[in-house]
User: Which sequence fits this backbone?
């Protein structure tokens, strides 16, 4: 597990704040308001209203439709091939996604992989602590994605789960 580095965390936080604020609305789609005045011919038939010769003989409940929250799971390659600029970009991307999730009320997880899987952020935690953990990510080892995918695929299905993002230096 990476060691927290508060100095690097502050630098990452400054660099990604604007991008995270633009990403946050996408992680929490707006709630659609319910129809406040449904048409008189829509809904569930109500015989009592029909017996009273009411204009609307159908009953329709109007509730807001809430989108499902999003849980973002990041897999970051920390093999030796990620040294230098690629790991700095991966740290910045992870910091941006964690900040955007914090702003939007969504949840984010950060997982690392080289020859084995490491979970860095698996649940809610203070934003600055999460940024310090992300800033402490170091490279080493070779690339093997299967242990990390096995751990994530074996985790129980969650109705809030929406995305899986893999950050890796593979080149076509």
Assistant:
């Amino acid at each position: 597990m990476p060691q927290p580095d508060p100095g690097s965390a502050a630098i990452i936080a400054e660099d990604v704040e604007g991008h995270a604020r633009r990403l946050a609305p996408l992680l929490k789609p707006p709630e659609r308001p319910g129809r406040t005045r449904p048409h008189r011919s829509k809904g569930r038939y109500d015989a009592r209203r029909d017996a009273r010769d009411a204009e609307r003989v159908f009953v329709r409940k109007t509730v807001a439709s809430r989108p499902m929250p999003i849980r973002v799971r990041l897999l970051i390659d920390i093999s030796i091939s990620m040294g230098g600029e690629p790991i700095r970009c991966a740290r910045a991307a992870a910091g941006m996604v964690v900040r955007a999730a914090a702003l939007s009320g969504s949840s984010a997880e950060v997982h690392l992989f080289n020859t084995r899987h490491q979970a860095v952020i698996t649940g809610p935690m203070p934003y600055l602590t999460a940024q310090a953990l992300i800033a402490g990510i170091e490279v080493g080892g070779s690339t093997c994605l299967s242990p990390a995918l096995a751990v994530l695929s074996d985790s129980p299905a969650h109705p809030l789960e929406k995305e899986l993002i893999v950050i890796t230096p593979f080149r076509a």
In short: The beta strands are 44-45, 58-59, 71-77, 107-113, 117-121, 161-167.
